[in-house]
Specification:
The protein is an alpha+beta fold and 275 residues long. Helix content is 36%, strand content 28%. It folds into two domains: 78 residues; 154 residues, Rod shape-determining protein MreC, domain 1 (Thrombin, subunit H, Beta Barrel), CATH 2.40.10. It has a six-stranded antiparallel beta barrel. Strands 6-7-8-11-10-9 form a six-stranded antiparallel beta barrel.
Length: 275
């Protein structure tokens, strides 16, 4: 006879074959199949858990990596666009300054020549700049220099292709001025502060008020008369001094302007128009 194990296999095989025949021929086993599937779902789901966890982890880490890469790319693009925007803003501001300078040149009676700042003094107390015009352009010692707002200074050294300009804020600089409102004359001296000049030896009886505008007086023949210099920002009267202490805020942007005008005063080498 057959061994017990083989008999069991044969019996199970016959039963299975019989169920297959019955399932194909009739619907008797339909409820049993549905019930078996329903009862087996939790086991199938439990068997799928490790695979689902593995897939979730792979998707999560992949998404995190993609987000990091995307964030890095967006940061780079942001820096690029910010750089381009800053450059565009700088160009727009420069165009505005040039337009203002052109408008200023129209109000100057003398001939002028456009120039650009190419250097600054390395000594903090020395307020000088270097411009890109020299002897070959007709520049000369004592030549007035303007920006779009007012007087900047005067040329003190001339080379072939560039010149050195002493700003009106330098402590060694003195500029004859007058009050635009009434013509009261004085001397504006530099203080080594780009934002402050002083008027010396002004008696308390002088008709000078806060907000008064000062222009060059033309005395001394160095600066033509009528160029804007600054505005009275402080007046102090003390019993300890016979003169008032007066401060002036310059109109010119002494430490910021980059495009300037060289003024060719009457009697100097003639220039026609703005180059």
């Amino acid at each position: 006879m057959y061994p017990p194990l083989l008999r069991s296999v044969l019996v199970l095989g016959l039963i299975s074959f019989a169920f297959m025949i019955v399932d194909r021929s009739t619907d008797w086993l339909q409820p049993l199949r549905y019930g078996t599937e329903y009862l087996g779902k939790p086991f199938y789901w439990a068997l799928e858990v490790p695979k689902r966890i593995e897939q979730w982890g792979a998707d999560t880490f992949a998404s995190k990596t993609d987000l990091i890469n995307e964030n890095h790319s967006l940061r780079q693009e942001r820096l690029i666009y910010r750089g381009r925007l800053q450059r565009m803003s700088e160009l727009a501001a420069e165009n505005l300054r040039l337009l203002q300078l052109l408008n200023a040149s129209k109000s100057v009676m003398e001939s002028v020549l456009l120039t650009q700042v190419i250097g600054n003094s390395h000594v903090p107390q020395r307020h000088t700049i270097t411009i890109d015009r020299g002897a070959t352009d007709g520049s000369y010692i004592g030549q007035p220099v303007l920006d779009a707002e007012g007087l900047m200074g005067q040329v003190i050294t001339v080379y072939d292709t560039h010149s050195e300009v002493l700003l009106i804020s330098d402590a060694s600089h003195a500029l004859p001025v007058k009050v635009l409102r009434n013509g009261v004359r004085s001397i504006a001296e530099g203080t080594s502060d780009f934002n402050r000049l002083t008027l010396r030896f002004v008696p308390p009886t002088s008709d000078i008020e806060l907000g008064d505008q000062l222009v060059s007086s033309g005395l001394g023949g160095r600066f033509p008369a009528g160029y804007p210099v600054g505005q009275i920002s402080l007046i102090e009267k003390t019993t300890e001094s016979e003169f008032m202490s007066i401060e002036v805020e310059p109109f010119a942007l002494l430490n910021r302007s980059t495009h300037l005008l060289l003024v060719f005063a009457s009697g100097s080498r003639e220039r026609i128009g703005v180059e």
